[in-house]
Specification:
Elements lengths: L2 E2 L4 E8 L5 E2 L3 H5 L4 H14 L3 E2 L13 H14 L10 E6 L9 H9 L5 E6 L4 H14 L5 E8 L2 H4 L1 H4 L8 H7 L5 E8 L7 E12 L8 E2 L17 H6 L6 E2 L4 H17 L8 E6 L4 H13 L9 E2 L2 H4 L6 H12 L7 E8 L4 E11 L16 H21 L2 H8 L4 H27 L6 H14 L2 H11 L13 H14 L7 H27 L7 H27 L3 H21 L3
Parallel strand pairs: 5-6, 5-7, 12-13, 12-14
Antiparallel strand pairs: 1-9, 2-8, 2-9, 3-4, 7-8, 9-15, 10-11, 14-15
Helix pairs in contact: 2-8, 3-4, 10-14, 14-20, 14-22, 15-20, 16-17, 16-18, 16-19, 17-21, 19-22, 20-21, 20-22
């Protein structure tokens, strides 16, 4: 649930971008090309991320021109320069950054000290992109509670000093792709916001309605990190005998596992759907959408997912300055807001939705503001939104079921072992022993369901028959994988665990009922598992088990083909709702039951 605010106003925002703008050709002059591979990666990444300009707080010799604290102070000074507030009027300061200039004390304290500011309360957030939102939330909450009338939040990023070629030349082993990747993605900058308990008497203020901030760190392994060597995620740089040894191991390279990134947007859109269902977001009421994404490529991903759920935010409402300012992590949303407020003609009552996902270990955040002018909030009457189609409403409800199911599966012991590298060969074999009987009978219960559909559902019968035909012999592929992984039990001797038995019995019971359209809800969960969960686990299985590729053919096939299967499913659901609108509740309830039973099967594998 979001944190709601009644008396908090964003009255000023400022940003600071160090040095001149640096185009793509000039980047090597600052951070240097490590090797021929690095140059190829640079061309590929820049072509995808769409960034054309960025700023660095180092010079061409790699020397620091502005420290992290310097950057923060510059942003604070810009913010306060638009107001009559002085630094000694500030009673609370929160800060956010991946890394300050020192490991300790807190970054906010370093900023206060360098400012020579009067005594105040401080709070330091160390994290990645969403830590900037955490700093905003802390500042807003102390104002809402009446503890202070003014509070500053500041975010700073200074990754360029991690990207200097000299650091990479010290690495003992070949530098992995994940370390090259972020060198061409991130840049330096800072931003600050002033929150007060009263709006500006003249000019624009943004009334803060709510902030939603949620971490999914228990669901997924680390995606972006600094401090551990490659392939040793449980080893800290502090565990080495010296920092020099840690640096040679690559512990101080900033890495991102791009294979995990699609899951971040799945989580982010699922949270968006929940906010829509709870009516915190009414899509048609959103006038502007400030979306932080690391690459232009991901903006299309977000738009497609919103379109599928009937939650389209028109392109003209989107605002991003990624191309011209680069990706500045925790500071990005501050820098974006500063340019947005400076360049847009805003009207009272307009609503601004902000979205900031974080890939560190997956956190998503949303913020909602309303525009005020001259201290007044004029709520504009907007036309009533067109009612959503039944299929769109069902997708929203099913999305909420999926969100909970996926989270539980990724927190199961099996997924945990796969992610952290403690999975053993016998664990993989046992998983397949549980799974093969289920896959073997999938086409059988689907055909049973087809036989119990009346003639008016002939089109749906054809779609399900096509699906059943395609998957009829999938169990043989999975059994071959099992044998190639060293499994030696006969296929007829393989048994489902109790969760699998309950799931199988439930599917048969539904299939035998008259017009069992509810099974479409079960197919949604089963096919979604193949499309979204399996592809996430597969790279880790390959990495940790050391098996030949012929032990993973079934998993690879479903990761690649279940998108097509889900498109066919969507056709069947739309037809079902037109022909029998009352099946809505049955489809949703079946999805909930299948999610619960499938979840139990996952939990009982080990």
């Amino acid at each position: 649930m979001p944190a709601y605010f009644k008396n908090v106003y964003l009255n000023s925002v400022g940003s600071f971008l160090p040095g001149p703008g640096i185009n793509n050709e000039e980047m090597d002059s600052y951070i240097g090309s490590v090797n021929p591979q690095s140059s190829r990666i640079k061309r590929r990444i820049l072509a995808e991320n769409g960034i054309q300009n960025r700023h660095y707080a180092i010079d061409k010799d790699g020397k620091t021109v502005f420290s992290s604290a310097d950057l923060a102070i510059k942003a604070i000074e810009k913010t306060l320069s638009h107001t009559s507030t002085k630094i000694n009027d500030i009673q609370f300061l929160s800060s956010a950054t991946v890394g300050g200039d020192l490991a300790a004390p807190g970054f906010a304290n370093l900023i206060q000290g360098q400012l020579k500011a009067a005594p105040m309360q401080t709070m330091s957030f160390q994290g990645i992109c969403a830590s900037g939102v955490a700093a905003m939330k802390a500042a807003a909450q102390v104002v809402e509670l009446g503890e202070f009338s003014k509070a500053l939040a500041v975010a700073t990023e200074f990754p360029s000093r991690l990207f200097k070629v000299q650091r990479f030349q010290k690495i003992d082993e070949n530098i992995d792709f994940d370390s090259h990747f972020l060198r061409w993605m991130l840049s330096d900058g800072s931003g600050a916001t002033l929150f007060e308990n009263k709006p500006n008497e003249t000019g624009i203020s943004l009334k803060l309605d709510w902030i939603h901030l949620k971490s999914f760190s228990g669901d997924y392994p680390t995606c972006m990190q600094i401090g551990s060597p490659w392939n040793q995620p449980n080893k800290s740089y502090l565990d080495f005998s010296s920092l020099e040894e840690a640096e040679k191991s690559g512990s101080f390279l900033l890495r991102q596992d791009i294979r995990l990134l699609p899951n971040l947007f799945d989580v982010g859109i699922s949270e968006f759907i929940d906010l829509v269902l709870k009516k915190d977001i009414i899509v048609d009421d959103v006038d502007y959408f400030l979306c932080h994404y690391s690459s232009e490529r991901f903006s299309d991903v977000i738009k497609v997912l919103l379109d599928k759920a009937g939650l389209t935010i028109p392109a003209e409402k989107w605002f991003s300055n990624l191309k011209t300012r680069g990706n500045t992590g925790a500071a990005s949303i501050f820098i974006m807001m500063e340019e947005f407020l400076r360049t847009k003609e805003l009207k009272p009552g307009q609503k601004i939705l902000c979205f900031v996902p974080e890939s560190g270990r997956f956190t998503v955040s949303y913020l909602m503001f309303e525009v005020m002018k001259d201290g007044k909030l004029e709520t504009t009457r907007k036309p009533a939104p067109l009612p959503r189609k039944p299929v769109e409403n069902l997708l929203l409800d099913l999305g909420s079921v999926w969100h909970s199911y996926r989270s539980t599966v990724f927190r199961s012991e099996l997924a945990h072992r796969i992610f952290n590298g403690t999975i053993k060969l016998e664990d993989y074999q046992r998983w397949m022993e549980n799974w093969i009987p289920q896959v073997r009978e999938g086409s059988i219960w689907m055909r049973t369901a087809i036989s119990n559909l009346s003639i008016k559902f002939e089109g749906i019968q054809e779609l399900i028959e096509t699906h059943a035909g395609e998957e009829q012999f999938d169990f043989k592929i999975l059994y071959a994988d099992y044998q190639n992984a060293g499994g030696n039990k006969l296929i007829d001797d393989l048994k489902r665990n109790s969760g699998g038995e309950e799931l199988n019995a439930y599917m048969y019971e539904k299939a035998k009922s008259e017009n069992p359209l509810g099974l479409l809800g079960g197919i949604f969960i089963i096919e979604g598992t193949g499309q979204k969960i399996i592809p996430t686990l597969l790279p880790f299985l390959k990495k940790h088990l050391g098996l030949q590729m012929n032990a993973f053919k079934f998993l690879e096939y479903h990761g690649e083909n279940d998108v097509k299967h889900l498109e066919r499913w969507a056709q069947a659901v739309e037809m079902a709702l037109i022909l029998e609108p009352k099946c809505y509740d049955d489809i949703l309830e079946t999805a909930k039951q299948v999610a619960s039973l499938y979840q139990k099967q996952w939990e009982l594998v080990l």
